[in-house]
Amino acid sequence: MSARQSRSASTPIPAARNIEQVIPMSFTMPPAPMVASRPRLISNTRPLTHSTSDRGMMSTSVGRTNIVNSPAGSFPPGSYSSIVARPIVGNNNANHPPFEPRIIRATTSPTTTTPSDPTCFPSSPPPRVRRQSSTSRHPSTLSTPVVNVRSVPPPTNVIPSTGNASSLSTSQAFPRPTYLDHSAFRDLIRTNVSTTVQSADPPLAHVPNTITTTYAPYPYMGRMTSPSMDSDEDSTSTTPPPVRISHASSSKDVWRGKANFPLPTRWSEMDRHTSLAISSDGRDLRFCGPSCTGDRESAAARANEPIPPACGIYYYEVEILHKGGKGHISIGFSSADVKLTRLPGWEKHSWGYHADDGWSFPGHKDGNPYGPTFDTGDIIGCGIDFSQNKAFYTKNGNFLGLVFENVGNDLEVYPSIGLRHAEEAVRANFGQAPFKFAIEDYVHCARDQVWSGIQSVPANWTVLGGGIAQPENSFEQKKAVDEDVESKEALKRLVFDYLAHHGYLKTAHAFKAQCERRSATQIIQPTETAEADDMDTDEGPSSPSPPITGEEQGLRTRVHIMKAVLGGDIDEALTQTQTHYPSVLEREQGLMLFKLRCRKFIELILEASDALKKAKSSDDNPSTGDVGNQEIVRGREATKKGRPVASEQDEEIDETQMDDGGAMEVDDPSPEAHSHSSNSPSLEVSSSVTATTDETTHMVALDVNPISRSSSSSSTRSSSKAVAKAALDEALRYGQILDGDYRPDTRPEIKNHLRRTFGVVAYTDPLAAGGEVAEMAGQESRNKLATELNQAILESQGKPTHPALEMLYRQTAACVAELGSQGVGAAAFADMSREFLDA
Amino acid sequence: MPPQPKTIIRKEDWERRLHDVPLTREDLNRLVMDYLVIEGYKTAAEEFSREAELSPAVDLESIESRMSIREALQRGDVGEAITRVNDLNPEILDTNPALYFRLQQQKLIEFIRQGRIPEALEFAQEELAPRGEENPEFLSELERTMALLAFESSPLAPPAIAELLSPGQRLKTASAVNAAILESFSQAKEAKLNGVLKLMSWGTSMLEEKASFPKLDVSEGTFN
């Protein structure tokens, strides 16, 4: 099991940057990276070059290579050695004995963390992986072998001496069996992952640390009330507390942090008794050598991967190719610590169904009658239902019943087969081919059953945290009633809270009114309330609204602010926020204020862009358009420099607003204005700017109307031009102040945002510009800002930044995912996106 | 197997996982809409479809009849509810004897609540007793209900008896009828959000055995 640790996504990448530096061969040749990526399988590299052309035949004729020289299902009798000696068709260098796993193990040991465990390298890396890596040149696939690479002879010179080369080259990738579609973790279950890449990774114990270091402050737990779990983390996690994670020593941890769950795809070259020969495609097992005598002697093999409980139900089938003389064949499962000299089912942590007597053996020699015997040609299916930790078997497509307890409970198990006598041979189907048994239907039923089982238990409010305390002696049924009621009440609160959080004001009102009416119906018996329903949906002053509580008022203010942002009225948002939630603008050294002001600037630019469009459209004289363009050019230059625009412009603007003292003051791009800001820019600045802009906006509004009425008159033309110019000047002036205020702020977040904000100026029509500019200017950016501001306001009120309803879903999904990682099979059948999100 | 040590999942790690859960505002809005429709908040559902720019999955008008039945039950007017259910679809009660019994039981409860004891007795003998003979479960429910007469609004009544008079009992009956109607329209029986709550409850208790992780107080939306 510890071998499993060696997987993680964080394989150290070799220092060498350039692949060519590391591996002295051209990467345009497909075989080369294969060699490079797996030097320990030197012997296998040669056949890889053939595998492509051979593949088609491989799929139909399994073992035309070393061991098996005939199609599946008909092992010719013959000695082990004679089969081996047969040259591989189409392989020039094919004179290699097929099985010397120990040699492979020796060469590979440097790359593994726990060489003692043979299962560590599902060894036989399917060559397809190599092919992938050769095209993608992913560093991680190259990282492992670098050390050895220089000692690898060029592939053309390789005379394979060890290993069953063809067995590696013929293992076929196959799509995930469809019955696994019923697992919620289906997208993580892999049949064709690069097992070698995984096994070459450093121990999994590192993973939690990695997570810690890449921690970004997600706001979900912004309101941790009492961190009972880690009391030392109370202080807002500035200094990470000592890691208290149990290191990956148990099978539980093995699944954790895995990006995916590899399926068994073949028998393991390593993890098998030496008397068992494996076919080229890894699916056939054949007993070679002298038959075992005595109960102690048997020969077992395990698959290359443990079965992920995240499958929910796992299933494979075995065809009995040859029963041999006595049919001492056991089909089942075992953990990696079970001796390979024993039939599955005889030893603890193994389970088996035996061909000769049809008995099942649950981990000791006292078996029980279970099913029929089986014989040459029979197809035996073998599954684990991880939702109950029971196994089941099928024979020729017929279900034989559930059997065994605690199969794979907190224990990694592998498909395993045991043989005892010469000529015994089986062929496994790990999903490469259609199954005889209708496993998909079976899993579907099991899934539905598990799901309805989960759904039939009322929510337990002691578990969910907020429930009413149950009286100790309450009746079971009473409890159920209460929980039902409690759930309903809780959902009401959650939904209302959600609506309020996101500012669905009318819905919230309608919902609340209906809730109140219902609870009224329950207690009194009014029959006439029904009409009152549709009245109280509007917040308008005309409708008789319920007395406004503080909370209600807060909600309205918040929604008002959000709507202001969404509508681009940043001044209103700023003013209201300043009035009602002043602390919000000061948060994080004025970050929120900064973002709002940046948005304000963008809104001004958009206004200017609009005004310019209007001026252009109202204009039949093309020369005016030029003027507009010139202005833009000027503006562009100004912002590029990041310095004040030409003083001429300033004067013009100042003339129009001479009476506004505040405007004058702010417009002054003097050092004082700049020095104003440091880390928390003064609010005065922004409010005076607000005043200025209001003025301008009004002016624009006044002037625009006549334009539309008589667009041909020259006076309107010039006035619309003036409006456009004024708008642009206004925007640029605001930009200067903004720049001045925040230039000294060295926070990268500020700098980056400022840069992106000013990027908008470069375009006459930012919304049409596309890319980052349009993103910055568009509605989506307003939405984002509104959401951020909303969260900030809620947080300042001591409320969660995310609605409890959202947290409920996220928390549930995280729980289910973790259960899947922990090997709780039932979690695989709690498919949230399917149950709750799909329409 | 020796008991496995509990995995400890740290706050930061957990927070990242919460973040990684694929979930959009639209997903949540649809869950809320589903809730409003299934639970019969018609006006709210209408408003929500406007405010969230979301079309409800069902015809909102169909909510209305469902809700009037529910309201009838919640104010204790069982007769009205039965009539309306039959107006809606007579097969609902015909094919569901347990539900019909439940409604009759509720009617009996309402008689007792109102102190109309003679009517209660007559109703029990004529309508309920024959059904009790058919089904032992019905019989024991009938007995439980009749026990109300013995205690007659006495505070000494055992909880299992007294709860029959609680608003929760009406709610339960109303929910059962609501579910049956929804089912007859081949709609989901209960709001998906309810399912999330149950799954949360299941998942939390399962995971508590295996790992130590930040727990969510669902009512507050806070972690503790």
From TrEMBL, chain A:
* Compositionally skewed regions (Acidic residues) per UniProt: 530-539, 648-658
Composition bias of kind Low complexity appears in 107-122, 676-689, 708-720
A Pfam family name for this chain?
SPRY
Where the record annotates domain CTLH, the positions are 563-612
Which segments constitute the B30.2/SPRY domain? Answer: 245-435
This protein's source sits in the domain of life called Eukaryota
SMART domains xrefs: CRA, CTLH, LisH, SPRY
Region span, Disordered: 107-172, 226-251, 523-553, 613-720
Q: Which CDD domains does the entry link to?
A: SPRY_RanBP9_10
Q: Which InterPro entries match?
A: B30.2/SPRY, B30.2/SPRY_sf, ConA-like_dom_sf, CRA_dom, CTLH/CRA, CTLH_C, LisH, SPRY_dom
Q: Where is the composition biased (Polar residues)?
A: 158-172
| Name assigned to this protein | SPRY-domain-containing protein
UniProtKB/TrEMBL annotation, chain B:
By its UniProt entry, which Pfam families does this protein fall under? CTLH (PF10607), LisH (PF08513)
**Entry's transmembrane regions:** none
Query: Source organism's superkingdom?
Result: Eukaryota
Q: Where is the CTLH domain?
A: 62-119
Q: Which PROSITE patterns match?
A: CTLH, LISH
This chain's protein is named CTLH domain-containing protein
Q: Which organism is it from?
A: Cerrena zonata
